Q: What sequence folds into this?
């Protein structure tokens, strides 16, 4: 079997580090071993309070794995992926071994090109509705990765989700340890991890439907709703074990890149997933089997820019 090279590792990791992670904590490492590219979780960067069970770290590493897959496929050297291939190494998330060379598909080319353009847009989206054909593409993107995507249609479903999300947000805001950890990852400068203040949304107003992370004390024009009727999607998986969460991370990234390729902006609403009681309430409200793994806000946004990432030298292992 043909092996991957150091150049392939560099190519895969450069794409992988553009994946999203809770508070932009970037909890991943990459290495080349026996001709395969391995994605590893980095417990040193796991959020102690917000992610004590490792859910967010595994979602992030799954998203990074998907980006690595895309970069290799776009280069004509696609990978065969094994999730958690060695249970003796709990930090080993995925191993990518080189499969038969082939030209990339159009979808692989388009999604790979979207990697550097994707970022979390926390600003208000324009009121233009997302067309039905693009909604269908987003649902299919999740299905291809063995996950499901539920689009909340109508104010009844949206209001029910908003109530759950706002309740979860209040729980997290009352947790002093959570808030201390959260603000430790908010930066006023151009740090290579964490969330820049400039990337945050304006302060929430009482009439806002969905909760926002308070990265800044900036206010918007008085009397303006943040978004009266946003498109909200819930991404879920069949189970909730480590492999399910890694798979959900891959599905999440395919959905996000599909949205980016379609000219859409997105951001994640993780509060109702982080609070277990809210997550269970959300699961029951959807009336479907499986486990919610992330909530997304999708729409047409104003231009922004991706948040910084650490240098490759910091995430590559010998």
A:
């Amino acid at each position: 079997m043909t092996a991957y090279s150091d150049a392939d590792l560099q190519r895969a990791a450069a794409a992988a580090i553009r994946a999203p992670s809770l508070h932009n904590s970037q909890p991943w490492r990459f290495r080349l071993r026996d001709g395969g590219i391995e994605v590893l979780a980095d417990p040193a960067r796991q959020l102690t309070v917000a992610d004590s069970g490792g859910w967010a770290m595994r979602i992030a590493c799954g998203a990074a794995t998907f980006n690595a897959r895309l970069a290799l496929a776009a280069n004509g050297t696609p990978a065969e992926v094994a999730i958690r291939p060695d249970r003796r190494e709990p930090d080993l998330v995925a191993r990518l071994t080189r499969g038969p060379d082939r030209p990339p598909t159009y979808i692989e080319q388009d999604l790979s090109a979207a990697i550097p353009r994707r970022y979390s847009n926390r600003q208000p989206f324009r009121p233009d509705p997302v067309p039905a054909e693009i909604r269908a593409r987003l649902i299919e993107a999740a299905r291809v990765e063995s996950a499901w995507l539920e689009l909340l249609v109508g104010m009844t479903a949206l209001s029910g989700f908003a109530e759950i999300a706002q309740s979860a947000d209040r729980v997290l805001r009352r947790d002093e340890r959570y808030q201390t950890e959260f603000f430790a990852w908010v930066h006023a400068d151009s740090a290579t991890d964490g969330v820049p203040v400039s990337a945050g949304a304006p302060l929430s107003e009482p009439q806002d439907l969905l909760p926002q992370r308070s990265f800044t004390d900036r206010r918007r024009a008085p009397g303006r709703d943040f978004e009266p009727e946003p498109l909200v999607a819930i991404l879920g998986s069949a189970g909730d074990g480590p492999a399910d969460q890694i798979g959900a991370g891959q599905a999440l990234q395919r959905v996000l890149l599909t949205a980016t390729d379609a000219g859409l902006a997105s951001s994640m609403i993780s509060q109702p997933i982080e609070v277990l009681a809210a997550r269970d309430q959300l699961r029951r409200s959807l009336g479907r089997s499986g486990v919610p793994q992330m909530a997304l806000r999708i729409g047409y946004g104003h231009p922004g820019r991706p948040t910084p990432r650490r240098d490759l030298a910091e995430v590559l292992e010998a």
